Structures are given as C-alpha cells and as structure tokens.
Amino acid sequence: MIEGFNFRVILEYMPLFLEGLRNTFLISFASIFLAIITGIIACAGRLSQWKVIRAIAIVYIESIRSTPLLVQIYFFYFGLPTLGIRIPELQTGILALMLNSGAYIAEIVRAGITSVPNGQIEAGVSSGLSYYQRMRFLILPQALGVTIPPLLGQAIVLVKDSSLLSLISVAELTRCGQMLTSERFMPTEGFFTVAFFYLCIYFCLHSLATWSQKKLIFREEY
Amino acid sequence: MIAHYLQRLVEIFPFFLKGLWMTVAVSGLSLILSTIFGFLLGTLRAGNSRILSGVIGIYVSFIRGTPFVVQIFIVFFIFPEWGIQLDAFPAAIISLSVLGTAFLCEIVAGGIKAVEKGQWEAAASSGLGPIQQLRLVILPQAMQTILPPLVGQYVLLIKDSSVVSVIGVIELTRVGWMTVVRIPEGLMVFTLVGILYFSISYPLIRLSNNLERRMAVEQVRL
Amino acid sequence: MIKFKDVNKWFGKLHVLKDVNLQVAAGEVVVICGPSGSGKSTLIRCINRLEKFQKGELFVDNFPLHDHSTNITNLRAEIGFVFQQFHLYPHMTALENVTLAPINVRKINKTDAVKLGHEKLARVGLSDKADSYPSQLSGGQQQRVAIARGLAMSPKIMLFDEPTSALDPEMIGEVLDVMVQLARDGMTMCVVTHEMEFARQVAHRVIFMDQGELLESGSPDQFFDNPRTDRAAVFIGKILTH
Questions:
Q1: How many CA atoms lie within 13 A of B90 on its CB side?
Q2: Predicted confidence band at C242 (pLDDT cuts at 50, 70, 90)?
Q3: Under CATH, which number does the domain B2-221 receive?
Q4: Which of A66, A160, A187 sits opposite B197 (nearest CB)?
Q5: Do A68 and B162 lie within an 8 Å CB cutoff?
Q6: CA distance A135 to A143
Q7: How far apart are CA A212 and CA A216, in angstroms?
C-alpha cells in the first residue's frame, strides 16, 4: 500500500486541501458560535416558568437528539426550497449544524446550571439578590467553569459533523477526498490525507479539553 | 398539491418501512459486533499490558479523531484497492462496528477501572482465576458504570448508521433521499424519515436516562 | 509452611524488603508489627503474590513463589487473606460472598456450598446475616464475613493485613474474638496488627519490622516487656501511649 501511495498527487492537490481545511475551520467556528447562542436560548426555554415555551424547547431538544444529523441536513437542504427559501448549500449546512449542536449544548448548559449547589442560590436569596442578579452574579459564573470541557467536547463533535456537509457539495475538507476519488480515482491518497488533517484538529482540541479539565479541578481544590 | 404528495407518500410508505428495517438490521448487527469486540478490547485496554493498551489507545484515537463519513469511504474504497471486493452492506457493517467498538471499548475500560483494586485482590486471594475474577466479581460491578452510556452509545450507532446511505445501502435515510427526487416535498419526506428514526431512538434515550437514575440509586445502596 | 530466604523487594528505587528471613511452622500464629511504611503489609502480601519480589526465595507449602511459573491460582485457594478494608463483593449477599470461591474454584455443588456457607457464617457468629448485603452490615460484621469467606476454602494458612485498623473501636473486639478462636483451633496464621492483647493471648511469636528490615523475633512477653532493639522499644512506647 505504501509503495502505491502517490505523494505527488497530494502535493498537487495541496492548495485544494488547504482551502478545504480553511472552510472546515470557518464552518466549525461559525456553527459553534451560533450553536452556543442557540443552546443558551434553548436552555433558558427549557428552564422557563411558562409551560408553552418549556414544551417548545423540549420538543426541539428531544427531536434533534433522536434523529441523525444527516437527516436534519437533508431536511433543510431539500425542505427549504419547497418553502420557497433558496439559500446556498454552505448556509444551509451551517444552519443544520447550529441547530443540531445547539440542542446538545442546551443540555450541557442545563447540567452546568443544576451543578451549582442549592446553598449558593439560598445564599443569594438571603442576601436579597433578584432572580436575574442571582443568575448573573452567582449561578452563571460558576456554571461556566463546569461547562467548558463538555463544550470543547461538543466542538470536537462539530468539526467531525461538518464533514457531512460534503454530501450537499459544500467544498470543505472531506469533499477534497471525494474529489480525488472521482477525478483521479485515488481514494487512498485522498481520504488518508483528509483523515490526517482531522486528526491534527482533534489532537489540538482534545489536549485543550484535557487541559481545561485539569485547570478546573485545580480551581475546585484550592 | 400537498394532499396529492401526501397521498403518494402513503402509497410508498412500505418502501419507508423497508428502509427502517434495513436501518434496524444494519445498526443491530453492528451493535452486537461492537458489544462483543468492545468488551474484549475494553478488558484488554484496562489490563496490565501497557503495549496492548497503547495500541488500542491509538486505534481509539484514530476513530474518535476522524469523521465517520471519512472512515466509511476508507473502508468502501480502499479494501477493493487491496483486492478485497466489498459490497455496500458488509462495508457498512464493518465500518459501523469498527466505530462502535472504539467507543464501547473506552466505556468498558472506564467501568472496569472504576472498580477498586481491592476487589481484584480479594477475588484473586480466594483462588479465582483471572477470567473468573473478571466475570464473577469485576464486571458485575463495572456494569453499573457501563450500562447507561452503553445504551446511549447504541443510540449514537443508530444515528450514525444514516451515514452508510452514502455508499448506497438502502436504509431509511437513503429511502428519503430516493423519494425526494420523485416527490419534491423535502420537508414532508424528511419529517417522515425523522419520525421513524425518533420511534426507535427515543425509547432508547429514555431507557438510558432511566438506567442512569436507577444505577445512581443502586450505587448509594452498595 | 512458609519460608522466606533473603527476600528483597524494591518499589522503583525504594527498598521495601531487605534480606528478610522468616520461617513459619504449621499451626504457628505469628504477629507482625512495626511502624507504618516498615514493609510489614508488603511482607504478608508476598505470601500469596499480591506483591512480587525481585530477589531471594520464598516457599509456601513447598511451592517456590520466587519461580514465576508456579501456578499461583491453585496456591491462593489454599491461603485465606483478610484485608484491612474488608473488600467484600458489594453486589453479593454475605452468603454469596462466602460461597463464591467454593462453587467456582472447588466446583462443589450449590446445595453443599450453601450448607458450608451457613456453617462458616455461624462460626463467625453471623448466622442471621446470610442474606444481608455488605452495605447493610457494620464494619465489624463485614470483617467477620470476610474471615468466613477466607475460611470457606478450608485454607492451610490465614493471612490478616491489619484486620482491625479500619474499624470503630467498639467493633474491634468482635473481630479479635473470632481470630482468637481460630488461633486456638490450630490455624496457621500471620497477622499484621498492633493489637497487643491479641498478640499476648495467642501469638507464638512476634516479629518486629522497621524500614524493610526484620529486626526482632521472639515470644510476645519477651518482645513487649524486654525489646532487644531501641527502635522496637520506641515503637512499643508509642503504641502503649496510643
């Protein structure tokens, strides 16, 4: 296999790979940013006092978690045009990724908030802080620390998930592998190179997650 | 117009059920294989051999660090290059099992490591052989930690099985994709696909949550 | 029954057993004491190879333990081990804890095993707790179940690694009573403990260890009343004031 491995073709396609890598980065950054906002809103809805809002949030979160991302991507890709909404594949893909990760992030944020000990809330109530003040000054700052490692975990998942956008012909990293397969019929070179780039991103994010987790434990101990 | 499409959708509904059946078959088969190999590798990963554990760790990182769609392309396109002809169905089973094994292996290893060392020593001291120690003393306790994420992993496997549609396995997602070409109602078609996925994965998600709660209670009892 | 010959063990650079020589005869009760970190636990853990050592020879029931091809599983079945932290199997009842090894190692049938289990539980005074889970038992009761678990294999040797150190003071007596009875029945025992009363009552010999060395070996009265080394004297002074 190694003797048949054509490095020249990889070099030849390198500009394409790098552009794909850049697009994967952009898509992932945009999606995770939007997903965090979506997640916080969905989590607020999930914890809301109004039944209707709570129900909407639950339906959103559970239906996302119970169905495959690919189906969600196709849902928007094939579905939006039938509603007369025509947006490019890239935006459709980011929309799907945002809504998908948003549901998982909503649960991460919720776990973070419920992890804040009850005594903290009681302490806040007794010192006369309002609900919003308690959220702003007591609960959110403490919840934030707990949510960072799982958020980084979600970022890892999202980078990998963005590979599915190749199936609606977004020119990201995985798409390059497909192109090498269809144009030159060199799937080995194409997909191993793609896998290599993903592994690099994975190890960076993974070390960051491990590091942040250690940092957190450190903070809890002292 | 919509009524017309709805009627056609009802007409081809058996086709969807066939797809659902294929999804259940593909994920069920991979689930069984992943469980067997996951427990095997997980035990070795938690074992004393550093080399073995390290090799398994590399495999797990490779699987965790790359998108499933890239893995499936590698299996589907590269085996034939090595002279092994592989149909879509076995390729799907292999890649899903390789994926599932990697994740289950970590869950199992984590569960085994969570059992305190004294339990191994006590079991060894009473003359139980290594396999007996594992089977009679360690695994029953490790199952407490293993079971909830195990069921959660099964849900992920069912959802990931949607990706095997890209190599032409006619499962639920592929059926949706084929249908949307003939019935241009993306929202309707993929809502139906989503509902069918929901019908199998939601009960499992609930089961996982229940297990988690029950195991937590049991942990207190122990 | 047990014979250590120039046994040496290192944990990395730390020399935890230094040229240990020790013989224990069948039916003998030996108490091993010494300050923490003296290697006394390591010493008795070597006897059923919970710890391996690097140099020297150790024969247990004529099996050479320094020879790593010795089938340790068979030998372990002949040696009962009682841990400081009990290590009962939390997912099994007291009776199941006791019968697990007889059923799976000795391959005796279930009815006989249950009978045997009840017998051993009765011997440690816990007939009524057969169906309790470890979490429902007090520390003293758990340790007695652990002793019954060891006895169920009809061992030739019983090893105790600080069996009362993790217990509340009011529970120490019930465990020691069981051990005294066992010693009087002629069991070969090696006990790591600081319980002087126990040593004086039943031990044939007391061994004193410090910093990996076996410093003294003598009768309990001689050891406690006239220790030969200064280090032993200091140690005895400490456990007396304790």
A1: 7
A2: low
A3: 1.10.3720.10
A4: A66
A5: yes
A6: 10
A7: 6
C-alpha to C-alpha distance for A17 and A193, rounded to whole angstroms: 8
Domain count, chain C: 2
Closest residue in chain B to residue C135, using alpha carbons only: B222
- Residues A26-46 have pLDDT tens digits of 999 999 999 999 999 999 999
Give the amino acid at C73. Answer: T
Among chain C residues, CA nearest to B132: C104
The pLDDT confidence band at residue A220, using thresholds 50, 70 and 90, is very low
Q: Which two structure tokens, joined as six digits, stand for C175?
A: 């465990």
Q: How many residues does chain B have?
A: 222
Would you state the pLDDT for residue B220?
54
If asked whether residues C220 and C209 sit together in one domain, one would say yes
What is the tens place of the pLDDT at every residue in B50-88?
A: 999 999 999 999 999 999 999 999 999 888 877 888 899
Copy the structure tokens of residue C35.
């300050």
Phi, psi of C7 (to 5 degrees): -80, 130
Stated pTM of the model: 0.86
**Cβ contact C33:C208 at 8 Å:** yes
B201 neighbourhood in chain A, CB within 8 Å: 66-67
- Report the residue from B64, B184, B198 with minimal CB separation from A67: B198
Do at least 3 CB pairs under 8 Å connect A with C? no
The 10s digit of each residue's pLDDT in B10-32 is 888 999 999 999 999 999 999 99
User: What CATH number is attached to the domain comprising C66?
Assistant: 3.40.50.300
Measured distance CA(C150)–CA(B2) in Å, rounded = 76
Contact residues on chain A for B74, CB-CB shorter than 8 A: 187, 191-192, 195
Which of A3, A82, A204 best tests the B interface by mutation, with the highest count of B CBs <10 A?
Answer: A82
Give the span between the Cα atoms of C205 and C158, in whole angstroms. Answer: 16
Which of C159, C142, C172 is closest to C41 using CA atoms? C159
Q: Do A187 and B77 touch (CB under 8 A)?
A: yes
**Option in B127, B130, B140 nearest C101 (CB):** B127
A71–B205 CB contact, under 8 Å: no
C63 within some domain: yes
Q: What residues in B contact C100, CB-CB < 8 Å?
A: 126, 128, 136-137
Q: Do B163 and A164 touch (CB under 8 A)?
A: yes
Contact C94, C134 (CB under 8 A): yes
Nearest-Cα distance to chain B for C86, in Å, is 9
Q: Are C6 and C58 in contact (CB under 8 A)?
A: no
On average, the pLDDT of chain B sits at: 91
Domain ranges of chain B: 2-221
Domain boundary among C155, C171, C196: C155
Average pLDDT score over chain C: 92
* Owning domain of residue C186: 2-78+157-241
Chain C: nearest CA to B114, how far in angstroms?
Answer: 14
